[in-house]
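Researcher: We plan to redesign the surface later, but first we want a full-length starting point. Tokens attached.
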């Protein structure tokens, strides 16, 4: 009745007002945009249009709201006088059902009422998030960092799941078969169901992953188990977290987990205690090689251990129960241990699970709206358009802001505005009309923020008077390729100034109207004259007359001086050969029959690979016997692979098997197998040669090839690692074991009849280009031990290294993706620079040990981070890496891989990704001898932390082949265009025309790339524009150079001209030290730019004096901090340049024990152990370190890392032989190692 009385009162008032003012119009209330709301979200608002309906008359409105619904309560209304929209704020009371709100709007003309019917429902996102991955061999449980082939939300049972057409996983449908299952049940790809010509190969593996949020409706115990129609031959896993966050990698946040492994070892069930209405994140993963049927069942089993859990014995019940009830009293269980919940729980196939009613499974669960955008303002307006701008909003829930929605007069004007776009132009408006605007932010879960400030604005009227002519036009700053132009603002009294148009040499320079009254005109040619005129545009679109023209002349080009808005570089091209560009190779699906079919061959012919590779971890399991002769699986043999390389006219690489569990022939009889292998592929007689002939290849294959690289395994550092990093390289517990298998095997190859030494090369399988990133493996692989005959001879030709640029194995995450994709690419360029230095460091090791400087082979190379897989930015970083690495002795950078997963360079539908086009252009247009080049520029590039990367801002490369010159420019600066001047060799005649090939995209995040070509004029000092995301190749003719064929992997460098050893303190004035003391020796090498500048330090002294040595950056630090007695002892230090042993110098110092009588380490030495644990058992590398360090010691030892004050920084229990620490600050650290045999300490220096 109270509400009805109010209505009658307003009605009476309205009649009186109408009678006395010759009434106009009562207010209008429009329909609400959204009337659906989620339970449990608390505060909400109802948005609707509103208008006083009176033209040319401003009236105040009063807006009120009321509701009789029990499940909501009104907070208030929000209305700004003059606005065309209003909101009602209310609180939902966590109760499902319908509700209504009555809105009353009144002005002097009368009142209007409107009832809005609302629905308070469950969280709207139903189902699971389903992901499909190419198989990930080394990921044991959760492929967090991998790019999925499919990422979708499956709502409920019976939903067909369309897979990417033509993908390596096929085009069949997966069907959700059980609504009551927690995750989806999937029946995928029975081998018999895969069409033979579908582009897949039968039995190919994949990983499925389901993520979601489980919200129980009852508090109590829940049982989770896997369900299978056939025996699970591979791995599946399930985990549920303590809250709604997917905190992978931290078991501390796991509430429960199970995982099965091969041969059904492990467990497939778990029990957890869950609270009603609380969200819990869960995942389920299945790693499949053949057809599987897999889902997780869940069930509620009661509120106490006595209900529904008879299958658990009393001890287990006590452990899994956080609370115990005894004699009616509930209290915490002292035996409860959450960690035990991730241990084995027995599977009970006969358990009857109680299903929960209602919706309990969600793909995500976020009911918190993001923050509202702020400061919505008018940038400028006209008669029919308005430009708006607002401040970026931030999500305050669990998912980031995804987009913005603009409302005009309470109605959606534009939705799904990209989250980085906070400026928009609203067009097609009516002149002299008032509008109300507001903006909201929307997060990834679909939550919408409250409105920004409501902005009321009126468009200008239509008028025809032009604005004033711009004056004071000035060329304020003129450079060699640009000029800054300024002018005085124009005026317009009727519709204001909307902007300016700029004309250069009579042509419109700016397609869009410029708001500011200054501009930098770019990309002029040096020493050229130009004229500029300005036109003002008012809000009605009227244009002023052109301003008085001004003229200027650009300066002569100088890359060392700044030019407004222009980034410059000069490229100096020499005529000396410094290396050889053989092109880029490709890893393919060599173990699939379709690899050898016409479609695959055509794809390879388009790519023109310099090499095809039979390799990857899967190659490690194959014996010679299983891949030679007739009767092999799918007729896939080494000979068939080499024949394909012969068809393509390229090199071939074959990685031999390494599996030792059980031992294949490459491990059980390596020498005999090597002999058979060579005869099989290149013999003209014998049983093995007959096997090849029986396959249909009568002629020797190696001699008919460009060349063959024999890789001695792929990544043989995995061993049999229970953590899932087994690379099928069982038996290589260390690289000592590996090298003692590899070196005799190489000898056997070379001694085999029919071995062709002219085009066959044998390669080690190493790890990272930078030795410090390989945890000592490089030094060990190339090392030698006195008295061991297997170490005495090293006839291996090449060193094979991984060419990955971070994110590949998750062992060395060098590239931090930072907060943005741009940071990722900046750090990628840093990684390129580091790896180029790493090749030199590896050569230093090779020179010091064997006096050899072997070529490198990048067996697999890519830049992997799943978020950015296949992007144009990645392709540019890799283009730089491939071309630059060739100057450091890399024979073939080999891309991993043609198809499949995050590394594929061809999409399942056949789309060529940017890296495919990079490799294609390099192979087609850049092969030849590498010419020496230098660059000069005032510009610098930096990584994501602002640290200088000492690289040219553009990768500059030049090649020569048969009178053709090929200049390749690749942008390293992802934020700025560059103008590059080519400085051709003096006194030489070059063609006046050529052709340019461009690979571009304005968006580095795109998976598209565009190839274009055009004729160009060629001249000395010509300017080439290099956009911020581009690669350009210029091809033109020039002088014929002497034919000096270089060997593959050849590189030249500046050699040292002088060498000396200096010390601090300077022992030329005082050569006596008293302990405790330290002294630093350093090498002074001229020129400092010599790339191979490593120094070998030799220290000799009497055994009576303890000392510690720290080496790094061509420095040697000796620390005398331990006790010794007796007379002073001489210490001899010799520094020798690795690249030239003739450069050597010796220093002698005298160390006295006199001052160490009361020195504390004399009482308790920190490096000696009075027990069975020896300091020599502990290895720290690198030491000194740059912040990352690996510590090796006996298994089952405890490592404690403390700083100089004794504060413990890290502790770790060694379950394997090594552990790594990162991000250590500069300083001195003590490494303490303890185990059952005793304790020992060593020092660590971080520079």
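Model: Full-length starting sequence:
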């Amino acid at each position: 009745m109270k509400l009805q009385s109010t209505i009658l009162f307003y009605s009476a008032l309205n009649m009186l007002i109408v009678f006395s003012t010759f009434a106009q119009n009562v207010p209008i209330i429009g329909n609400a945009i959204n009337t659906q709301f989620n339970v449990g979200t608390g505060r909400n608002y109802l948005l609707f249009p509103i208008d006083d309906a009176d033209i040319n008359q401003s009236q105040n409105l009063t807006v009120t709201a009321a509701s009789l619904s029990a499940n909501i309560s009104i907070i208030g209304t929000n209305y700004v006088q003059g606005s065309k929209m209003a909101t009602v704020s209310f609180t939902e009371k966590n109760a499902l059902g319908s509700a209504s709100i009555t809105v009353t709007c009144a002005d002097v003309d009368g009142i209007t009422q409107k009832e809005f019917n609302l629905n308070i429902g469950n969280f709207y996102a139903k189902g699971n998030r389903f992901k499909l991955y190419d198989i990930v061999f080394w990921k044991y449980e959760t492929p967090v960092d991998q790019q999925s082939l499919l990422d979708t939300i499956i709502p409920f049972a019976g939903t067909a799941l369309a897979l990417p057409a033509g993908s390596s996983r096929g085009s069949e449908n997966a069907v959700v078969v059980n609504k009551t299952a927690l995750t989806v049940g999937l029946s995928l790809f029975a081998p018999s169901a895969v069409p033979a010509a579908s582009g897949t190969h039968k039995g190919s593996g994949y990983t499925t992953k389901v993520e979601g949020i489980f919200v129980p409706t009852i508090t109590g115990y829940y049982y989770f188990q896997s369900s299978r129609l056939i025996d699970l031959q591979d791995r599946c896993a399930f985990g549920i977290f303590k809250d709604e966050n997917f905190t992978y990698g931290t078991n501390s946040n796991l509430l429960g987990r199970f995982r099965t492994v091969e041969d059904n070892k492990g467990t497939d069930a778990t029990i957890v205690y869950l609270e009603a209405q609380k969200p819990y994140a869960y995942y389920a993963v299945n790693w499949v090689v053949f057809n599987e049927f897999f889902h997780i069942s869940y069930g509620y089993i009661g509120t106490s251990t006595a209900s529904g859990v008879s299958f658990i014995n009393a001890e287990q019940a006590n452990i899994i129960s956080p609370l115990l009830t005894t004699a009616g009293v509930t209290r915490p269980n002292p035996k409860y241990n959450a960690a035990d919940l991730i241990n084995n729980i027995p599977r009970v196939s006969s358990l009857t699970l109680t299903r929960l009613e209602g919706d309990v499974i969600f793909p995500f669960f976020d009911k918190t709206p993001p923050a509202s955008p702020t400061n919505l303002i008018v940038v400028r307006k006209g008669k029919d358009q308005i430009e708006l701008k607002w401040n970026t909003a931030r999500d305050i829930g669990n998912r980031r802001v995804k987009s913005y929605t603009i409302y005009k007069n309470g109605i959606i004007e534009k939705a799904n505005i990209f989250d980085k776009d906070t400026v928009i132009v609203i067009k097609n408006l009516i002149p002299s009309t008032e509008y109300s605007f507001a903006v909201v932010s929307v997060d990834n879960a679909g939550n919408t923020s409250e409105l920004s400030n409501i902005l009321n604005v009126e468009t200008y009227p239509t008028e025809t008077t032009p604005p004033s002519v711009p004056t004071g036009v000035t060329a304020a700053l003129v450079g060699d390729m640009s000029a800054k132009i300024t002018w005085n603002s124009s005026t317009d009294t009727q519709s204001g100034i909307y902007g300016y148009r700029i004309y250069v040499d009579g042509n419109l320079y700016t397609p869009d109207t410029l708001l500011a009254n200054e501009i930098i005109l770019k990309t002029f040619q040096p020493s050229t004259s130009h004229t500029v005129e300005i036109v003002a545009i008012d809000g009605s679109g009227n244009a002023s007359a052109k301003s008085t023209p001004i003229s200027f002349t650009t300066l002569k080009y100088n890359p060392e001086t700044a030019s407004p808005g222009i980034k410059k570089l000069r490229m100096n091209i020499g005529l000396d050969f410094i290396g050889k560009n053989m092109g880029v190779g490709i890893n393919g699906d060599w173990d699939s029959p379709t690899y050898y079919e016409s479609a695959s061959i055509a794809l390879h012919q388009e790519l023109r690979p310099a090499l095809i590779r039979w390799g990857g971890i899967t190659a490690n399991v194959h014996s010679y016997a299983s891949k030679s002769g007739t009767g092999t699986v799918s007729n896939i043999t080494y000979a068939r692979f080499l024949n394909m390389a012969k068809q393509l006219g390229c090199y071939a690489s074959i990685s031999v098997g390494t599996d030792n569990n059980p031992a294949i022939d490459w491990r059980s009889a390596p020498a005999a197998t090597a002999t058979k292998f060579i005869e099989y592929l290149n013999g003209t007689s014998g049983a093995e040669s007959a096997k090849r002939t029986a396959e249909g290849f009568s002629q020797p294959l190696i001699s008919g090839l460009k060349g063959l690289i024999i890789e001695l395994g792929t990544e043989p550092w995995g061993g049999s690692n229970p953590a899932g990093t087994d690379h099928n390289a069982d038996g290589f517990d260390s690289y000592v074991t590996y090298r003692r298998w590899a070196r005799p095997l190489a000898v056997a190859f070379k001694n085999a009849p029919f071995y062709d030494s002219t085009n066959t090369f044998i390669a080690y399988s190493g790890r990272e280009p930078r030795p410090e990133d390989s945890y000592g493996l490089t030094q060990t692989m190339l090392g030698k031990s006195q008295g061991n005959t297997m170490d005495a001879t090293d006839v291996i030709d090449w060193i094979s290294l991984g060419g990955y640029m971070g994110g590949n194995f998750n062992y060395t995450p060098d590239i931090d993706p930072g907060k943005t994709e741009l940071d990722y690419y900046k750090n990628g360029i840093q990684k390129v620079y580091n790896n180029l230095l790493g090749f030199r460091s590896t050569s230093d090791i090779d020179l010091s040990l064997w006096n050899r400087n072997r070529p490198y082979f990048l067996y697999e190379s890519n830049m992997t981070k799943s978020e950015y897989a296949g992007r144009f930015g990645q392709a540019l970083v890799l283009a730089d890496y491939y071309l630059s690495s060739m100057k450091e002795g890399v024979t073939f950078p080999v891309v991993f891989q043609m198809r499949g997963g995050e590394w594929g360079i061809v999409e399942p539908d056949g789309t060529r990704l940017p890296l495919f086009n990079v490799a294609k252009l390099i192979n087609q247009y850049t092969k030849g001898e590498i010419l020496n080049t230098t660059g000069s520029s005032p510009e610098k590039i930096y990584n994501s932390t602002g640290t200088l990367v000492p690289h040219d801002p553009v990768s500059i490369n030049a090649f020569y082949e048969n009178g053709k010159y090929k200049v390749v420019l690749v942008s390293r600066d992802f934020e700025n265009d560059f103008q590059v001047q080519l400085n051709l060799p003096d006194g030489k005649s070059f063609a006046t025309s050529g052709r340019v090939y461009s690979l571009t995209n304005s968006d580095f995040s795109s998976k598209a790339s565009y190839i274009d070509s055009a004729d160009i004029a060629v001249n000395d000092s010509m300017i080439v524009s290099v956009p911020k995301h581009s690669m350009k190749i210029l091809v033109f003719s020039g002088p014929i150079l002497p034919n000096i064929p270089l060997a593959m992997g050849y590189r030249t460098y500046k050699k040292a001209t002088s060498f000396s050893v200096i010390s601090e303190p300077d022992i030329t004035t005082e050569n006596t030290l008293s302990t405790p003391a330290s002294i630093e020796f350093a090498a002074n090498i001229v020129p400092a730019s010599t790339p191979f500048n490593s120094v070998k330090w030799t220290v000799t002294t009497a055994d009576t004096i303890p000392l510690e040595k720290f080496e790094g950056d061509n420095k040697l630090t000796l620390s005398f901090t331990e006790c010794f007695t007796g007379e002073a002892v001489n210490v001899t230090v010799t520094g020798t340049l690795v690249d030239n042993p003739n450069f050597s110098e010796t220093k002698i110092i005298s160390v006295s024990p006199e001052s160490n009588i009361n020195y504390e380490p004399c009482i308790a030495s920190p490096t000696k152990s009075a027990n069975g644990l020896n300091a020599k058992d502990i290895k720290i590398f690198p030491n000194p370190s740059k912040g990352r360090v690996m510590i090796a010691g006996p298994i089952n030892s405890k490592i404690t890392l403390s700083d100089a004050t004794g504060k413990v920084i890290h502790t770790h229990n060694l379950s394997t032989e090594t552990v790594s620490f990162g991000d250590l600050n500069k300083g001195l650290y003590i490494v303490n190692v303890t185990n059952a045999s005793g304790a020992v300490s060593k020092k660590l220096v971080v520079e």
